[in-house]
Specification:
Layout lengths: L24 H31 L3 H29 L1 H21 L3 H18 L1 H12 L3 H12 L2 H15 L2 H23 L17 H5 L3 H30 L4 H28 L2 H21 L4 H30 L4 H30 L2 H18 L9
Helix pairs in contact: 1-2, 1-6, 1-7, 1-8, 2-3, 2-4, 2-5, 2-14, 3-4, 3-8, 5-6, 5-14, 6-11, 6-13, 10-11, 10-12, 10-14, 10-15, 11-13, 12-13, 12-15, 13-14, 14-15
Amino acid sequence: MGRPHRARGAPGGVGGAGAPPPRAVLPALCLTQITSWGVVYYAFPVLNPAITADTGWSAGATTAAFSAALVVSAMAGIYVGRVLDHRGPRTVMTAGSVLASLSLLVIAAAPDLPAFFAGWLLAGAAMAAIFYQPAFAALTRWWAPDHIRALTIVTLAGGLASTVFAPLTAILADHMSWRATYTVLAGILAVLTVPAHAIALKAPWPPAPASPPHVTGGHEHVVRTRAFWMLAVTFTLSAFAMYAVVIGLVPLLIERGYTTTQAAWALGLGGAGQTLGRTLYATLARRLGVTARTVTLIAGGAVTTAALAVVAGPYALLVAVSVLAGVIRGNLTLLQATAVTDRWGTTHYGRLSGLLGAPAHAAAALAPFAGAVLAGPLGGHPALFALLAVLAATAAVTAFGARTQQR
């Protein structure tokens, strides 16, 4: 453990490692992904009603600050990816944990809306350094060619973030102000993630394996290829549709006469389907090639979105469709995590995944707001979901243009 890895061939043309991966990395990243997502991401929707009630700021303004953080995260991810390729995840993720904790303290102390925005912009930079992208880069380099199993474990852990921290945040908010709650959460984040990243990720960063034979000219060549840009378009359209569906499901069901509780259960069970879907990805990856897998999953998202647009009931059927949509979302997370490796190897994984993911992450950040704005002019959420199904179907078509010459 801790010795530099020897590059060797791996199934699918992906460079692997000759030495066992450092054992502390996987449990540490499971812990830090649960904590980072739970504190920096999922605490906000729980606390936002208290924030608006206490400050008088509109929910639209506070949500805009949060969405701005997600856009900053998408853009910062490009730079973070470059650093990850050369220096590994330890410095990036440790510094990101420190910055995330400080940003929450800025948010907690914000005397006015501009300061609140400033805190979230700092949080956005931190998200790029502590969320899935750097964790995926670490696992892909240290675990290849068995990286799918490691990625699955960490995303399963990440799926527990809302389960753990949404109730914890609500309990804290019942006994203290939202400012005090964010201060406590900042302390939890610092205590659990800063030392975990600093200590568990200290193993030497293995040298990048050689690029697969079909990849020539380095990352500069890859980002100029038609396949790369078609894949970026595919993931951007798919992410916009997927996240708009997640946020729009509750108002869709309420429009159809279901109670808020019934709508919330449908959404929650869809989240359970997402966790189930992640356990199935390795089997899917063994059975389908990369292009077929991409088209199948994104087309499946289009079909479930269309079903939600046209099926008004019964309730059990809508829940079943929501669960199936969750299964597909869970697979799409891992599809995006392995997209670069499957096509261009692990040599420039951090940089290529940052560039590939930036527009998709920005689309995901803007989708909830855009969906809410479009629902009215379109005549309601069923029509919105029909439009989102068309976007997802378009993404499935553009996925055919992302073929490469990988073995």
